[in-house]
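Dear support,

I submitted the protein below through the web form. The confirmation email said the job was done, but the results page showed an empty box. After a refresh the structure appeared. I'm attaching both so you can tell me whether what I see now is the final result or a partial one.
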Amino acid sequence: MLNKENISPYIIGTMRLGSWGNKLSTKAYEKFIEQSLDLGLMDFDHADIYGDYTTEGDFGAVLKNRSDLRQKMRIITKCGIKMMAPQRPDHKLKSYDLSKGHILDSVENSLKNLHTDYIDLLLLHRPDYLLNPHEIAETFEKLKKEGKVKHFGVSNFTTSQFNLLNTFTPLVTNQIEVSVLHRNAFADGTLDQCLQLNTIPMAWSPLGGGSLFQKSDKSNVKAIQKTLGQLADKYNLAIDQMLYVWLRKHPSGIIPVLGTSKIERIEAACEALKTTITHEEWYMLWQAAIGKEID
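What the results page shows now:
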């Protein structure tokens, strides 16, 4: 069973490894995978659309020749977004589709591209306003019985959307945007729900999209940067490490999705696992972000 006790402390994001970012060669992918596994990080986060539907295949090219690596990792992938791309000429516009047919087709494509017989965790990438929870539950049950998917979750779902679907079929995670710059989940009930249901919150863009590492004229960014600098000096950490420490302080057990291909930055993130901050220091960053004393 996938739960908070056995999931990696960080998830390795693949979105920027392929054509949307670093364009790693098959050899570079293999080295990156091995180095991540050596650090004890076994969860790799994909989506069918990454790299305009090519990144799963790039990653799978490694597993085609190194099937031994498959047993050492867990593969997460997402479906439900239909993008216009050369690989999908039948898509006439961007839309969301969580129909039975689209989910089943997406899973078959992912299995083929990743050169695997099963997906450890399938996430519905975005809520489809036309989703039918009865149909999705039947689809998940079919995939589980066939051994093609072990666990199911969602991404970017509101609390009401999560509750609706979770009533019909058990979900283990909601992958959401969370950072010191994007704090909605702390106040809108999303993280409360994770605590209540003991589900895993995964944080995409945990560093806030990189703006905190650049010079800015925005007052809140400058205030956050100043406070981060003070805390980083105190704990002898880098700014990105402090941001991970801040997220992981929350009792829901937020798991950041790392978006880097640089193994030294992943090593640094692992080093930050040894550090925790005080209650008051957590609120120092919150106050810097909102620009005033908390109400």
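Response: this is the final, complete result; the empty box was a page-load delay. Strands lie at 11-13, 43-45, 74-79, 81-82, 95-96, 119-124, 149-155, 173-177, 200-204, 255-258.
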